[in-house]
Amino acid sequence: MPNRRLVLACAFLFAAGPALAASAGPAGPTALPDDMSMGNPKAKIQVIEYASLACPHCGHFNETIFPALKAKYIDTGKARYTLKEMLTEPVQLAAAGFLIARCAGPAKYFTVVDQVFRSQSRWQSGNIKPIFQEIAAANGVDEAHFNTCLTDQAGVEAIAGRAKRASEQDGVDSTPTLFVNGKKLEAIPQTPEELDAAIAAATKKGR
Fold this sequence. Notes:
Layout: H1 4-9, E1 36-39, E2 45-51, H2 56-64, H3 66-74, E3 79-85, H4 91-104, H5 106-118, H6 129-138, H7 143-150, H8 153-169, E4 177-180, E5 183-184, H9 192-205
Parallel strand pairs: 2-3
Antiparallel strand pairs: 1-3, 2-4, 4-5
């Protein structure tokens, strides 16, 4: 069973206030100030991923395809990548992972996200708290900050609001979901070659 502290930390998830303004429109979703992004803001290729840290398919994408996306497109300035946070079961673990990433700060956010994804195979033990504490400590979040982070009502409500916005206003109902220049990919790329083809098709159509 998930650690009780993580469950209690997310007690406010379903009592969150109104979501922020919609980010999806006729041209597709766009990055908002409360989303986390990496890469050149002026890049011609804009990649948006809707993902949950508790989603195994998202973890697989993070491990097998995202490194190619980052190396070939993001790190070279060709693409801007934005992660839109969603919550899938177990919701309390997905939320806890995002809370830790946010508490680690913008410079460490994506490092924490990557490490949480890669820790999914260790969750079968049922004792998740030490795993998350390990990740937090490796990224400058000590035990006191870790505990405060997970019980921060404002932080929990903010994550719930972003997840609600993604589902109810952006209309995204599965994870991972990818948009390239506003175009939703019908299938998640399974190889770097499929990623290249999807980006080429989406950017060509958007010209």
